[in-house]
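We emphasize that the prediction below concerns an isolated chain of 185 residues; any contacts that depend on oligomerization or on bound cofactors are therefore not represented. The input was used exactly as deposited, without trimming of termini.
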Amino acid sequence: MTGKITDPDVRLLAGIGGTIEADFPLNEEWGGSPFSWITLRPSRQRGKIGEMLVAGWLAAKNMSVAPSPDSQADRIVNGRRVEVKLSTRWKNGQYKFQQIRDQRYEFIVCLGICPYDAHCWVVPKDEIMRRWKSGDGVHSQHGGQAGVDTAWLSFAVEHPPAWLREYGGSLSDAFQVLKQTVGEG
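Result of the prediction step, given as a token string:
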């Protein structure tokens, strides 16, 4: 395929698309960011990207990382079951770590990506579930408070909840929490 449009209807459609493209500008804030490509991927792929980023980061820091043998966790880190959640910074300045479920894992690694920065928290599952049940910082994602299937953790990037501080913030802080939790690599 040469990349030239020969069909007149396709040419017409492309021309119309060119006139409306300005109505849907790219998010300039991410322009030049080494993470901008992530924002162009569908949400299902972003989850996989998050898993791969965390796995690569931890492996580079000499942690033992393997895929989970089942769908109840994303990775096995130093023998411990870990769920990974990725959020890029939303236009409103928030992270939203979504699709949190009560499955068979011990910790959630929440990786937040901004255009030129990253944040991370390593939160015990028990803490997330307790906060979900009490409605304190973790909220049902579908069906309001009555929703029981999935939850999300949402907060302004610059103002994470105070209770999250002990679980990380920077990548290096989160790595220290993870080392204390799962042991050295």
